[in-house]
Amino acid sequence: MKTKRIIATLLLASAAACAAAEANGFRTVKDIPYYPDDILSQADALKKERCRLDVRIPEGFTNFPVVVWYHGGGLVHGRRGGYCQICRNPANGIGGVSVGYRFVSEVTPADTIGDAAAALAWTLKHIAEYGGDPKKVFVSGSSGGGYLTAMVGMDPKWLAPYGFKPTDLAGLMPETGQMTKHFNVRKYTGDTDSQFLSKIDAFAPLAHAAANLPPICILVGEPEIDWLCRAEENRLLYASLKALGHRDVEYHAFPGRRHGTMSYDAGPAELEFVRRHVQQIDGSWTPTGNKVLDTLEDYVSKGRIAGVVSVLSDDRYNVKFDCAGWADMEKKIPMRPDTLFAIFSMSKTFLGAALMVAIDEGKISLDDEIAKYLPEFADIKVEEKGADGKVQLVPPKRPLKIRDLVTHTSGSSCAIPIYKRDLPLREAARQMAATPLKTQPGEAFRYGNAGIDAAAAALEVATGMPYEKWLYTKITDPLGMKDTSFTPNGKQLPRLVKAYTSDDKGLRPASDRCAGQLVFPWKKKVYPCAAAGLFSTPQDMIRFSQMLAHHGEWKGRQIISRKTFDEVFSVKQTPEGVTQPYCVGSWLYDDWFGHEGAMRTDQRANLKTGHSRVFFIQTENKAGPAFFALKKDWNAVCDEVQGTPPFNPGN
Q1: S-S: 534 plus which of 334, 347, 376, 598, CB 3.0-4.6 Å?
Q2: Residue 159 belongs to a domain with what CATH number?
C-alpha cells in the first residue's frame, strides 16, 4: 500500500532538495473556485477573484493525507500559493491545499472565516477526486492562518452549513495563531483598545475549547521572542483543552525562533503528528494520548509527588514540554517550563563545558599540573601507612593534574558540602590543598565537590576572568539561557520552585539541608560554586542538553569545537583501573551524556542519536520510592516516545 511510504519517510529534505523535487514530484491544479456555482453567480468581483485554491498532488501516491493551508498576514494581507512545510517534499507523500480568502479589512470577520470554512468543506468533498483521502484532511496555517485554523476547526458553526463537523478532520496544526479574539477582527469592528488587551468572545478560539475536538498540535516560537502574548495564549489553550478532557493535544515551542520564522522548525513535529494520525486512521496505530504527560500526571494525581517538568528534544531541535503538578502546592502555582530550580551537581557539566572552551582557546589543558595555576597545590601530601602501621604524609607519586580534579580521581577527602556556598572558589581550592590526599592521584574514584571548585579556580587564573563571567560569556549567553545563574534576581525568584518529599508518606515540604538553598534571602554572602551552585529552568536546560547532543553545536553555532568535544569532553577520562564512566564533569552511560543534581533534577544528551531529555523535580537529596519509581517509568516512556535504546542510568 503506497500510503505506507508516508509512514516510512520521517525526515524533511533540505530546501534545495525540496526545490528540485517540486518540478518532478508534484502535480498542481491551480485556481479552483471553492464556492458552489450558484453562490459565485451572485458574488461580487472580489469573492470571485479571491475565493480560490490550489491543490498540490504528490505523484505516485494514492489515498494520501492532505494539509489545508491558510496563509498569514494578520487577516489583512498575503496571498495563496504557499503550503505547509511538510507538503514541500514529495517523498513525504502528503498533498497540500493552498487557500485564498478575503480579508477582514475588505469584508466582515464572519465572511473571512466563512471563506476558510468553505475551502475546507470543498476539500472534504472533493479531495478524493485528486487522489487524496477525505478521512486524512489536516488543517494548518501561520499567524492569521493559525487563527483561521483554530476557528474553523474548533467552532462547529462554520462547517455545519456544509454538513461537516470538526471531528471530521484528521487534525489541526495552528502555527503561532492568536487564540483570543484576533486584534484585526477587533480593529475592523470598531474596537480601539490595545491589541494586547486579550478579549474572548465567539471570535476567539479559546471560547470553543472542548474535549470533543480533533487532535490538535499547537506550535509557537520561543515565548520570549514570539509575538507578544502569543505563546502564552497558545499555552492557555493547551492547558484548557487538557483540563476539559481532550486526550490528544500537544504543544511545541521552538527555541530561537520568532513569530515569522518558527514555521521553519515546525516541519518535523508536524510530520510526526500527521504520521501518527494517518496510522490511526489506517488501523495500524492505537492512540494512547500523551504518554509522557500521562505518566507524570499519574504520580501527581495519586499524591506521590508534588510536581515535575519533562522536556524532550529530537535531533532537529523540536522540543516537547510536559508539566504536571505544582511548583508550590500551598500557593497553587503550577509547574511551568520557566519554573526555576536549584540544579546542584548538574553544575559540574557546565564547568566541563567552560573548560572545553578554554582548551579550544589554548588557555588550559587537562594534562596541566594544578600547581601551574594554584601554587598552594605544589606541596600537597598523601596519607600512607608506614611499616609500623602508622599514617604518615608523603609526596604524591606524581603531581596533581586538572584531569584528576574534574574526574574525582585526585584522591582528596576534602569535603565541602553542596549547601556550603559562602566560600570563594580560591578559598575552596586552598582548603583542598591543605587537606592530605587519601589515595595517590589517578588511582581511585572519590566523588566530591572540592576538586570541581578547585578546577574552576584554576580556570579563573588561566582565563583572567571570574568563573561565572567566563561561563556566562562562553556558554549560557550564546545559548540564550537567560535564567541560568548562581544568584537568581528579583524577577526570577517568584518563579522559584518549592521542594517536597517523595517518600510515599504524604507530601510535605522538604526539610534537608539542600532545601535550605531554596530559602531566600540567604543569610550569608554567597559565591559561585562550580560544583553545585547553579539555578536554571527546564526551558534553559534543554538548550544546553541540545548543544551536548549535537557535539558542541547549537543551531549552527559551534560553542565547543567538535574535536575537543569528541576527544576530550565526552570520553571516559577516569584511568583504566577505575570503572566509573566519568568524563569531565559528566557521566557517560552507553551513549547518554549528562548529570543529575542533589535534589534530583537531571539532563541527558544522546551523543549517537542527537536526542535530549530533561527531568526537573525538586525533592530531598535522599529521595523516596515515589521519585525512583517515577524516574524509572519516565525514562521507559521517553525511550518509547523518542525511539532511543533503553536508558541505563547506572547506579
Answers
A1: 347
A2: 3.40.50.1820
Closest CA to 265 of 248, 252, 283: 252
Same-domain pairing of 31 and 158: yes
Q: Rounded to 5, what percent of the chain is helix, strand, coil?
A: 35, 20, 45
Domain total of the chain: 2
Strands (E), 171-306: 171-175, 216-221, 249-254
More confident residue, 13 or 177: 177
| Cell numbers representing residue 129 in the block | 477526486
Q: Is the dihedral of CA 378, 384, 386, 387 positive or negative?
A: negative
* Residue-wise pLDDT tens digits, 2-47: 333 332 332 333 322 233 334 358 899 999 999 999 999 999 999 9
214: left (phi over 0), alpha (psi -120 to 50) or beta: beta
Angle at 24 between CA 21 and CA 29, to 5 degrees: 105
Helix and strand totals (H; E) in the chain:
18, 21
Does any domain span residue 323? no
| Average pLDDT of the segment spanning 109-114 | 97
- ∠ CA 48-54-59, rounded to 5°: 155
Amino acid at 59: E
SS3 annotation, 343-373: CHHHHHHHHHHHHHHHHHCCCCCCCCEHHHC
